Amino acid sequence: MLEPSQNNELPPIPGKRYFTIGEVSELCNVKPHVLRYWEQEFPQLQPVKRRGNRRYYQRHDVLLIRQIRALLYEQGFTIGGARQRLESSSGQEDATQSRQIIRQIRAELEDVLAILKQ
After folding, report:
1. % residues pLDDT > 90 (the chain)
2. pLDDT at position 93, please?
3. Can you list the domains of the chain with their CATH numbers?
């Protein structure tokens, strides 16, 4: 568990489009293996995966991770309770997943286009 003095001292999120798992780990004060575990437990958390299955998180993913972290570490929810809270508060889950899939397909198509241009 984190010390109470560290709970509200998260760094600001930079204006980047994609973040690596290491960067997200530092931004949210959560270890990378915990982030990978949360991906399995929370269906809303689906970072874009590219070459070699590398994860690339977007700003909305970082905000979601901070929300999950607050529910678990600060408000004392269990994993199941936090999952229910997020599902009940996000009626736009399907739209978010659709946008995520479209972004992933677009990124893959851009990679294919770059290869074809060579």
Report:
1. 56
2. 54
3. 4-117 (1.10.1660.10)
